[in-house]
Amino acid sequence: MADDEFAELVLTLVERIPPGRVMSYGAIAEYLGRGGPRQVGAVMSHYGGGVPWHRVVAANGRLVPGHEVEALERHHAEGTPLRGDKIDMRAAPWWPDETQS
């Protein structure tokens, strides 16, 4: 798969993550069946400014490095479940096949 195609798949999926929910880099790669967390991170780093980038987090709930303050503000505004300054990865993860609630 060409890099542009992979990037488009990642960005399209990130656009679908509902407010107040998140996906990890690895979960995105798993859902797409291509790449891995680092490849998803590279796409987000280069092209993610136009999508809800703050909804993509590390598997441990850590926010986007270098953008933690803005990401935390956005998560507070959306009502994302938090545990301190990280996402509550028991309550906030979303999988595309879920019904949005």
TrEMBL record:
* Start and end residues of each stretch annotated as Disordered: 76-101
Q: Does the keyword DNA damage apply?
A: yes
Where is composition skewed (Basic and acidic residues) in this entry? 76-89
User: Which stretches make up the Methylated-DNA-[protein]-cysteine S-methyltransferase DNA binding domain?
Assistant: 5-66
Which InterPro entries does this entry report, sorted A to Z? ATL_DNA_repair, MethylDNA_cys_MeTrfase_DNA-bd, MethylDNA_cys_MeTrfase_DNAb, WH-like_DNA-bd_sf
Instruction: Report keywords, A-Z.
Output: DNA damage
Record has Ribonucleoprotein as a keyword: no
Query: What Gene3D superfamilies does the record tag this protein with?
Result: Winged helix-like DNA-binding domain superfamily/Winged helix DNA-binding domain (1.10.10.10)
Note the SUPFAM superfamilies from the entry.
Answer: Methylated DNA-protein cysteine methyltransferase, C-terminal domain
Q: Which PANTHER family match?
A: 6-O-METHYLGUANINE DNA METHYLTRANSFERASE, ALKYLTRANSFERASE-LIKE PROTEIN 1
Q: What is this protein called?
A: MGMT family protein
